[in-house]
Design a protein that fits this description.
Elements: E1 9-10, E2 18-19, E3 25-26, E4 36-37, E5 58-60, E6 64-66, E7 72-74, E8 104-108, E9 112-116, E10 121-123, E11 143-145, E12 148-150, E13 152-154, E14 166-168, H1 170-180, E15 194-197, E16 200-202, E17 205-208, E18 228-232, E19 235-236, E20 242-247, E21 250-255, H2 257-260, E22 270-274, E23 280-285, E24 290-296, E25 309-316, E26 323-328, E27 335-338, E28 345-350, E29 353-357, E30 369-375, E31 384-387, E32 390-391, E33 394-399, E34 411-414, E35 429-439, H3 446-450, E36 464-468, E37 477-478, E38 494-497, E39 500-503
Parallel strand pairs: 13-14
Antiparallel strand pairs: 1-3, 2-4, 5-6, 6-7, 8-9, 9-10, 11-12, 15-22, 16-17, 17-21, 18-19, 18-22, 20-21, 23-35, 23-39, 24-34, 24-38, 25-30, 25-35, 26-27, 26-34, 27-28, 28-29, 29-33, 30-31, 31-32, 35-36, 37-38
Amino acid sequence: MATQLKQPLTITGGTGVTASNSGVSWDGTQQVDQQISIGQNIDTTDNVQFNSITASSWKFGDDLSFSTDGHALGDLTNTGTLSISSTLTINGNTTITGKITAEEIIAELTSSSTIFKSGSTQFGDDINDTHYFTGSLYDSGSFIFNGYSVNEISNDTSMTHGSATAIVTENTAKTYADSNVGASVVEPYLRKNFNKNASSISNNTASFNAVLSASAPSGITATSETDFLFFNNGQIMEHDALTIQQSRGVFNLLVNPSSIGYNLASDDEIKAWGRFESKGELKFDGSNDEVTTSFSGSSGQGTHIPSDKTYSFWAKSSQTSRNYSTFGWGDNKKSFVFNFHNNRVLRWYNAGWYIYWDDTSAQDDGQWHHWMVYDSPSELSGSKLYVDGTLIPINEIVSSSGAGAANYLQNLTIGSHRNDSTGADTHFSGSLKEFSVFGGDKTSFASTYYNNGTPYDVTNETGLQAYWKMTEGSGSKVFDYSNNTDSNGNRYDGTIDGATWEAIE
């Protein structure tokens, strides 16, 4: 028999709480099932949502709590949208991995910056503020320096626009200068002036021995009589009656008697002041003088196997017997020799691999001559020799054995066939200068580099691997002007061992 309750139990749902049989009374006489729920799971791993929460304080885990005045204490990580309708003050660091959208952003430390909604920015509030940018700067508008507006970086190589609001690129400046040097608007080349005395006078020609006029780089106005002042017995000579001429190592002053009003006499004292080259030339005594370099076949983009190269240089010698060696690569198997046998010019690799050219007076006449040697070691018949721009015929070729023994990893020596100051039979007797090395065949420029007897500056020529002008006039170094460097970033400067600077009078 069931027990009946005098006061039945009734469960009624309320705010946020529901009962499956809300309001149904239970007195014990029969079964009543009630399921009570709050509409969402509230386990610690569940996501619980409330329309609003009112509390004296909130605490979220161990890191973050909020007080009733809205202050957050601890660390806050927000992966969604955070809306704050009033002032937000953060006393610590803030990390935001997304975007910031704001009407204005104002930052103040030792200086200030403002980013406006319009996209404009203001950096600093004082002329002493300094701003550092690391990385690239992209500017699609104009910029202003001290009130002067610049709205373009111009690559107009002709510079015809004449813009007052454009700055030019390096390419623009170089291209324009290259095409306009020598014009009245561009003349950037400076030459030193030296005083010389005429050594002989004949047929209204005053000659200055062992003197070369200063050469000009390609594109620069060539040296002319207007670059000199000439004096005859203390009286200045008028330019419109004068012509200069370079003949190897001799500088000639040609006088027009009808224009100047008199003939030259053999006892006249004629002086020249002008754009002559350096006062010194490097002389090798044929005994133990040489210039050692750090330039090797590998430096010149070759290997231990001989590679095609062109050598361009000026030489002066009075040595009529065998004259070792204008240059070499470590031993006599890679030397270039004047008057080796029957007064012939020799390019030597080994006993079964060498080439002779015909005898030429340029080897021993005591005057400056330009030499250009194209070195084709793998096929000797392809080798060529030019003297003062003229091709010298091949006299003999011996190719009974290979040239592979010529190891080009050794360094180039000028004035000898190896870096060894001993042994008088291994060294050149005479003077050398303007020594350059090119990759490949440059003999099509033989006449250009001879330049009618005036040394030609090859600094900017293609294929250049090393270039020693050897006109320093003093010191123990000859400098490489090729702008090439070894693996350590060093130029191939040469060291003078024994050779001496001799004044040019």
